[in-house]
Design brief:
The radius of gyration is 26 Å and the shape is elongated. About 10% of the residues lie in helices and about 55% in strands. Strand 3 and strand 4 form a beta hairpin.
């Protein structure tokens, strides 16, 4: 028998990668020694020492720059090459395009050793020594919810909601998309000695705050039935979608997701359908720098519905087993650059089962998957991915009499483009 590939997501905290672009960038401040402040920062994936090119819609290429300092909503850049000084203005809008490190001229590479100590002189505030005059001595010993409501007021709470759900920002973020088509000429897994051909597409918007991503995939396989030793063909379908509000706080993002998969093996659906709904969860951005693009830990409660067809050993007829449960989804996602053309990603999902009837947690039913990936940039938008996936699902054995573990090796060719 057969079981479908586990559902895998990748989320994303981003740094400014080569050729990645941010549109409608504004210069907020021009400081001496060719330093500018722009209206994009950590929320847009900009990190200290990022290298980028500024271009303007009508006049084209304006300048090259290195990021000196980045905050939640703004960042400071050192302009080291300005061929057209007249195109640098607070009245214009720019496109910020990430560039490879190897394109930094040698004399300017040393600037990276000093950038982290940069401070905006307008932000430096002198605080007198001794007792801080801003500290009030009549603060209540215990702060109640009513104190918070009266202090903040409905207007301030409304401003926070409007900031999180900004309609204008949503419209801008849902305007531009990046699409990937991929195909795997070689996929082999241990559960049934299957050799498969896999193909599909991924899409996601290029956004600073509201990020929508989806994936659709089909897999055609020729495999050996572990019971009859016969070789048969089968086809599977998977789909995923997720929505993220990036950087609700400097370290926290929201996470909403839906997973689906189905598999037809001869006359049986194993599973016939499998849905996981995660209405709201959170991602903690634990660590990031110029090399480590993200090191994130996520949690999202999942409503799990699975329908599996089985054969009655006595009558030979088909019957359907339905299971409903709550799963606690824990996701650890990391991505790091090895060099300019090679990167490493790892995505670990652990989803322990909790009964909706008794609320007991089954520590042996983890629905675990770990996806390790090496990404090779062959040329421009063409990539070669090598995947090594390990999966553990207790229900494969209890419902379908299959091994509870599976190891998958695959090679994928992927092409990315913007729409």
């Amino acid at each position: 028998m057969w079981i479908i590939l586990g559902l895998l997501f990748s989320v994303q905290g981003f740094s400014l990668e080569s050729f990645e672009s941010l549109k409608n960038v504004k210069i907020l401040k021009v400081i001496e020694t060719n330093i500018i402040m722009i209206d994009r920062g950590l929320e847009d994936g900009i990190l200290i020492n990022d290298h980028a090119k500024l271009s303007q819609e009508t006049d084209g290429y304006s300048a090259r720059a290195l990021c000196l300092l980045t905050k939640a909503n703004v960042s400071y850049w050192k302009l080291y090459r300005i061929p057209y000084a007249e195109t640098i203005s607070k009245d214009l809008s720019y496109t910020l395009v990430g560039m490879a490190d190897k394109e930094i001229p040698a004399p300017y590479e040393a600037m990276r050793d000093n950038t982290t100590r940069y401070e905006d002189p307008d932000d430096i505030k002198k605080i007198p020594l001794g007792n801080d005059p801003f500290i009030k001595r009549d603060l209540p010993e215990k702060l109640t919810e009513r104190d918070i409501i009266e202090t903040i007021g409905p207007e301030q709470r409304k401003l926070y909601v409007e900031k999180v759900l900004n309609k204008d920002q949503i419209n801008r973020d849902l305007r531009d998309y990046k699409v990937s088509f991929f195909a795997s000429p070689y996929t082999r897994q241990s559960i049934n000695e299957a050799e498969s051909f896999r193909y599909g597409a991924r899409a996601g918007n290029i956004a600073s705050k509201y990020r929508l991503q989806g994936q659709f995939e089909q897999q055609q396989s020729k495999l050996k039935d572990p019971k009859t030793e016969e070789t048969v063909s089968t086809r599977s379908t998977t789909a995923q979608a997720q929505f993220v509000i990036h950087r609700l706080t400097p370290d926290i993002s929201s996470l909403t997701l839906i997973n689906y998969n189905s598999m037809r093996f001869t006359e049986l659906g194993t599973p016939k359908s499998h849905w996981q709904f995660g209405p709201i969860g959170f991602t903690w951005h634990m660590f990031e720098n110029r090399t480590w693009e993200y090191f994130d830990l996520s949690y999202v409660p999942l409503y799990d519905y699975r329908a599996t067809e089985v054969i009655n050993s006595d009558t030979g007829s088909n019957s359907e087993i339905k299971t409903r449960a709550l799963r606690h989804g824990f996701r650890l996602a990391v991505k790091t650059k090895i060099n300019e053309r090679v990167s490493f990603e790892n995505l670990l999902w652990v989803r322990p089962y909790q009964s909706l009837a008794t609320w007991e947690i089954d520590g042996s039913d983890l629905n675990l998957s770990n996806d390790m990936k090496f990404v090779f940039n062959l040329s421009g938008s063409l990539f070669l991915d090598y995947n090594l996936v390990y999966q553990y699902d207790k229900l494969w054995r209890t419902l379908s009499d299959l091994p509870s573990t599976n190891t998958i090796n695959s090679i994928n060719f992927r092409y990315d483009f913007d729409i």
